[in-house]
Design a protein that fits this description.
six-stranded mixed beta sheet; two-stranded antiparallel sheet; 8 helices
Length: 221
Amino acid sequence: RMRSWSDSNTPAMSKLYGEHTLSYQGKTFNLQAPYPRLSVAEAFQTFVGVNTDELLDHQSLLKVAQEKGYQVTAETTWEEAYDQLMLNVIEPALARFDQPVFLYDYPASQAALSKRKTSDPRFAERFEVYLGGLELGNAFSELTDAAEQEARFREELALRAKLGKTKYDLDEDYLAALRAGLPPTGGIAVGVDRLVMLFANASSIEETLFFPASELFITEN
């Protein structure tokens, strides 16, 4: 069960809930449902101060990112501004909740394989769940329309080419599978390593991995 953002305006930071608690990195979390949830548009309105139209408009979002102190140039894409605000403003705000919190209805461009919302196709049927500053799971309704999926793939490839990123071939096998038919479906990818972090009170994901990258490669801090 989940409750809407309007039902939980601000997180209660000091409550204790008996057996339905989890202590992680010195903070106690309430695991009892219902859980607060926010749409991405609500999160940007609440924590960044932009409405839905401003969120989805390239120039408006660049202006906001610049006002927040992030480096913005004429070449900065909407996705780059969105990522700056999501990673540096929205996710830290979600980390202050003392419960699992769901973020849902992502902009369609941020859900490449997800079905668009019928009520507002600017957004997709995707959600993520966070707790203690960790992203624990990513879920969405599968896009089953082969023509739309191909159009999205080509748009993404064109953007990668424009940005000078590595070029990939169109995933013809996946498109062929969609053309053959895929029933309405959806799922969630849960980060088991993130769950281990929580229950082991580990501060770094490397403590939960069998083969941490730092042991296999020369990495920079």
